[in-house]
Amino acid sequence: MKLKKKYIPFLFSVGIVFGIVLGSFLNFGSSSDTAFFGSNKKKEKLNKLIDYIDYEYVDTVDTDSIVDVTVNGILDHLDPHSTYIPPEELKEIEENMKGDFVGIGVRFYPYKDSITVIQAIVDGPSDKVGIRGGDRIIAADNIPLFGQAMSDDSLSKILKGRVNTFVDLKIKRQGESELLSFRVKRDIVPISSVVASYMLTDQLGYIKINRFAETTYDEFMTALKALKREGATQLALDLRDNPGGYVSSAEAIADEFLKKNKLILFTKNKTGKINETYSKRGGIFEDGEVFILINENSASASEIVAGALQDNDKGLIVGRRSFGKGLVQREMSLGDGSAVRLTIARYYTPTGRSIQKPYELGNKDYFEDYLERYENGELRSADSIKVADSLKFKTPLGKIVYGGGGIIPDVFVPKNIDYEIEHLNYLLRSGYMRMFIFEQLEKDRSYYNALSLEEFQNDIVISDTIVEDFISYAQLRGINLRAKKYREVYKNYLKATMAKQLFGDNAFEQMVNQDDAIIRKIISLSAD
């Protein structure tokens, strides 16, 4: 089945909804499970109803599921970011935002009838004992892992465990006639949120952050100090497609660009109580030139960083209007392993802007705002961005900024909404291209695994034949592609995906950014 042009906005809106909902889970690291609520008739009514169903209803009913439905129904009447988190999801979310987990340190695919290692995380437990990309994990502690359907959850229970415990793996490696045995010592494995850091030019460094986790500030500082040692006096901070996370991490990063005692943001709750956050110290890049990259998927904590710098006349915001989430959540335990993240305040940028977009028309309309932007031309032209004079604010140096829904960039860069490019971007982040490249690597795994990054960049060429093979691969899965006009773009994306599987995210981002319009604009601005 061919994916028609009209479906492309839908595909991207689905991705936006997923990312922003995830980001909305993750705003404030503090939780509240100590609040005491006295008895009242409204709660008693709900309790009685659940008891009646539990004990008197004619059929057996899972009342836990009823409670979940009730909780979700209540939250649906509040705002789009007050969210219920079931027990099975809470642990994974917390682990992801903590910035590390205990395990063996591999990225893997369930491939054909076995668990196949895509990449051993550099300096992780598996990397240290010699496990490589392409290895099949046949068994763990004598538990067979091949020839059966294994869910991610069940596999995680086998491979994860306590720090300093061991798991014995049986590995099938291409070119080896016998199974290999590895004893892997479980350890803390980082989940990086700074996914790329390198020099774009002799003076311009680049850092990409994909979410704001507990470890993000430390990761950011490590990357920034390394770039300064390489000569960076300018920085491109890429927050595109970053759905947010912990506000404290965003505040700490903004602090590094601002002089001491500059307002970063303030929050206001229902009683009108205001909490202000100021920069606490001289930042290590307060004298450097900074460019903040945002797009329609940059939300929450990303918007805090962009708004703080824009309102303090620090650097340039480049890209497209951000998502528009200015609500603060706090996590509150519900006592059974589940939690609710409830909106408790609104946040405002230093000039007093609320960048929360309207949500009175309901969640569906709220999350499909991307489609409206697509259709009204905002993604192609800055002139199509709707602003209200009543929400006009002025920075200390006199620059006009607007509230009412997202951060409007200082320098607008249109989105390429060409059907083929949109489709390619979708495929780049989907599983189709990853699986195709994995199978290409499997044709000569020992050769590819022996390459250095420099050798890979210089020696590996994506041929026209590989492009045609990928098009055929996609067609067998119901996706029709055209490659005449964009053959070189296909080649770059395929090679970037290969680099990611062999060398990680940093190599991937460097290659994808070579043809990125916003990156090209940043380089041009930095040279002026």
TrEMBL record:
Presence of the UniProt keyword Hydrolase in the record: yes
Coiled coil: none
Domain Tail specific protease: 177-358
Zinc-finger in keyword set: no
Alphabetized UniProt keyword annotations: Hydrolase, Membrane, Protease, Serine protease, Transmembrane, Transmembrane helix
Protein name as it appears in the record: S41 family peptidase
Family: Belongs to the peptidase S41A family.
Transmembrane segments: 7-26
CDD domains: cpPDZ_CPP-like, Peptidase_S41_CPP
Short name of one Pfam family: Peptidase_S41
InterPro entries: ClpP/crotonase-like_dom_sf (IPR029045), PDZ (IPR001478), PDZ_sf (IPR036034), Peptidase_S41A (IPR004447), Tail-specific_protease (IPR005151)
NCBIfam families noted in UniProt: prc (TIGR00225)
Domain PDZ span(s) in chain numbering: 100-175
